[in-house]
Amino acid sequence: MSTIKEIADNYQDVEHHHKQIHEYFCHETNKIPELKELRDWVESNIFGFGERSFYYMWKLIVDEMPKEFSFLEIGVFRGQTLALIQILAKLTEKKAHIYGVTPLDSTDGHWESNYAEDILNIHYKFNLKQPTIIKGLSTDERVIVETIKVAPFDLVYIDGGHTYDVVKSDLKNYCNLASKYLVVDDCANKFKLPSGMFAGIEPVSKAVDEYLPPYTSNENFTYLCNIVHNRIWKRN
User: Fold this and answer.
1) Residue 199 above 90 pLDDT?
2) Does the pLDDT of residue 109 top 70, yes or no?
3) Total domain count for the chain?
4) Could you give the 3-state DSSP secondary structure of residue 117?
5) Domain containing 39: what range?
6) Is the pLDDT of residue 194 over 70?
């Protein structure tokens, strides 16, 4: 399975399928030296969370992007995903305009760090262009307005605050800025993941289930599949 469509067409919400896809995606990630190098470094330096399998998920999504595309991440942390998207763009000889909305502080329970410097350092380490950061909480009106000014984005990834109210706000304000694909993190609690596999955070899943398919109809998006606790939609 080498396209998002193939993954979606063969999708089953059963334990063995979730396990198989996760393991296959980890294997495929490790076969691409640039992705393995980034993930190994991120894990060694605690520069991000999520799953190794997500790297191949993003690879398949970037494969679907045009030669020039834009990406928005809500909730950047230390810059792992922003760096990954740029590496994937380089590997496919595409030009990526990369944006992140983030407070650059310990909001949402993260430890204290110089997040601006962290983002700069991971991009410097891997010889990548620095992304455009819109500093502030995703719920702030100023931040929403600034982000809308540079919209739409081919691809939007929501991984910001993890309370129900913040997720509802992010879905309302940023989902429809995605012109091709939408990905939301930490929101697969209703799915039949194997024991020991992190399914997400209940308030995040509740907010997403109330806003997007398959549990709530939304004429703008078609649900494709989940990779562990990341879920993927295609814009109609």
Assistant:
1) yes
2) no
3) 1
4) helix
5) 4-235
6) yes
